[in-house]
Amino acid sequence: MPYVLGAKSRAELVGVHPDFVRFVELTLKYSTQDFGVHDGLRSEAEQREYVRTGVSQTMNGKHLKQSDGWGHAGDLVPFINGKLRWEWPPIYVIAAAAKRAAAEMNLRVKWGGCWQELSQIKGDTPAAMEAAVNAYGAARRKAGKKAFTDGPHFELVR
Ligand SMILES: [Zn+2]
After folding, report:
1. Per CATH, is 7-156 categorized as 3.30.1380.10?
2. Quick one: which of 25, 31, 123, 143 is 20 to 30 A from 9 by CA?
3. pTM of this prediction?
């Protein structure tokens, strides 16, 4: 049985670019892991609070309304036993489905797990997604930088 987006997820996607909403729907269709949309469009005040508490790194986030009037991002969080859970193994499953969805739509989407466009990741299995996250972390460490991974985060590249 394919999963369906719940009312809360739908509400989060209000104000988000229609291409991204279609991408989320297609990702859910292909995903063997259920998920909820935790954050779609954010207000400036919400984003400021996220930056203050360290949840988000930037004030120039794609969750904010962009110049075209839409939000360009969403956080797809695994939904397990009635709860949203920030856990990597199910996130890899969602990311693999997201890669397939973006490819089918010919849509450029960047993934917060490794901050790469999905099309640049080799392979489209959960294991391939995990490898991309690990490679990103290793490259950051080698450069003496902190790795800021955000596995549920996806954003349009425009
Ligand atoms: Zn996000």
Report:
1. yes
2. 123
3. 0.94
What separation in Å is there between the alpha carbon of 114 and the centre of ligand 1? 13
**Ligand 1 centroid, distance to 73 Cα (angstroms):** 6
For every residue of 36-92, DSSP letters joined together read EEEESS--HHHHHHHHHTTS-S-SS-TTS--TTSSB-EEEEEEEETTEE---HHHHH
For 38-72, how does the pLDDT look when each residue is reduced to its tens digit (9 = 90+)?
A: 988 998 898 889 889 888 877 678 999 999 999 99
Q: Give distance in angstroms: CA of 56 to centre of ligand 1.
A: 8
Q: Percentages helix, strand, coil for the chain, rounded to the nearest 5?
A: 40, 15, 40
pLDDT in tens, 11-32: 999 999 999 999 999 999 999 9
- Name the DSSP letter for residue 122: S
Helix (H) or strand (E) holding 116: strand 116-117
Report CA(75)–ligand 1 centroid distance (Å): 5
pLDDT tens column, 95-122? 999 999 999 999 999 999 999 999 999 9
Distance (angstroms) between ligand 1 centre and the Cα of 62 equals 8
Give the residue extent of every domain in the chain: 7-156
